[in-house]
Amino acid sequence: MALISETSDDVSNGSDPNKDPEDLHKKPQEEEENQNEKPKEEEQVENLAPIRRRDIPVILIERTVTLIRRCHYPRLSLISKAFRHVISSEHLFVTRSSLGLTEPVLYTLISFPPFEAPSWFILHRSNMSLRLSRISSLPPMFPGYTAVTIGHKIYVMGGRVGLNQPVNTVIVIDCRFHKWKYIQSMKRERCYAASGVIDGIIYVVKGIWETLPGPFSSVASSSGFFPIHVVLDNKIYMLDGQHCLAYDPRLRRWQNWGPESPQRHYWYACSCVVDDLLYAIVPQWCLAGSLIVVYDPRDMVWRPVKGVDDFPSPGYLESRMASFGGKLVILGWHQTKNSCARDSEKIVMCVEVALGRREDGDIWGKVESTSPVHSSFSWPIIDISRTVTV
């Protein structure tokens, strides 16, 4: 178990992994029209010089772009060099943040074996439809990494090279500009570690810069293999085989529950936390016919999320779920009708679910959209989905 403190906001592009880089409203003047005044000659109007895009003041570009959603920035950057300069400036994002105009953006890491290594994709809207776009400027991640988000940054820690060689590298990704850099390496190599952010501190199970006191759970695997984990109720919950473990960094205390415990009953890989409630996709026969269930750590009970039993589930084992602006976003693969053919398309589907709590305490969901967002001819493996704020 270890912790990292977030102390610097320096940004660099990190393109060399061998180095150690540290990061108008002006009211128009109204003119009263004099009916007796002689109109201007048409020649005078025709001789006026046209307004050119490069003559638009930078301050006007900044004020305009600040109010526009980030998903439109790629097209705006094509207008001129001045637009590209504004969009790529840190000042723009500082201004948006001060005005409360930041927005959630979903990032996901997908691999397409056996030909492609894991690559980062961003989920955004295009003409009112959702789609995934690959981010070519970010490096591939090591298998077995663990990742957390703080603000506009994603921290990627550990992983392995080859079949059985853990690494101790730490990469920080600045999602405002899709730049990255290496920061101080971990003191120990880690693969498939659990991680979470509590009180602004990154905790990793087990080990990095500072070892935290145990005792470690007697039922936990000696390898520390925790690919499924969440932060819930200010604790790091993790699955270890048939057991559920939790670490409370405030009290520095461990808890563990067996396979028959309520915590373990319906928790699978496709899960995430929204408003301190744990949501998970389950087989439809599991709990009252619902595809999505919710766990409240205060009463330690799983309940069905009502109203979401009629959408095509992308699968509770192969999918990944993320909290996205208070909603659930589920990504999973789907086969076309010619699924038996080797060259058939494999589709990545996205399901958006809005959530609401009724007066009786029940959680209701409403499926807002189900749409294909990416296609390929190899099986996609969705590693993680994470939401950042930019």
UniProtKB/TrEMBL annotation:
<dbReference type="InterPro" id="IPR006652">
    <property type="entry name" value="Kelch_1"/>
</dbReference>
<feature type="compositionally biased region" description="Basic and acidic residues">
    <location>
        <begin position="17"/>
        <end position="42"/>
    </location>
</feature>
<protein>
    <submittedName>
        <fullName>F-box/kelch-repeat protein At2g29800</fullName>
    </submittedName>
</protein>
<dbReference type="Pfam" id="PF25210">
    <property type="entry name" value="Kelch_FKB95"/>
</dbReference>
<dbReference type="Pfam" id="PF01344">
    <property type="entry name" value="Kelch_1"/>
</dbReference>
<feature type="domain" description="FKB95-like N-terminal Kelch">
    <location>
        <begin position="208"/>
        <end position="373"/>
    </location>
</feature>
<dbReference type="InterPro" id="IPR057499">
    <property type="entry name" value="Kelch_FKB95"/>
</dbReference>
<feature type="region of interest" description="Disordered">
    <location>
        <begin position="1"/>
        <end position="46"/>
    </location>
</feature>
<dbReference type="InterPro" id="IPR050354">
    <property type="entry name" value="F-box/kelch-repeat_ARATH"/>
</dbReference>
<dbReference type="InterPro" id="IPR015915">
    <property type="entry name" value="Kelch-typ_b-propeller"/>
</dbReference>
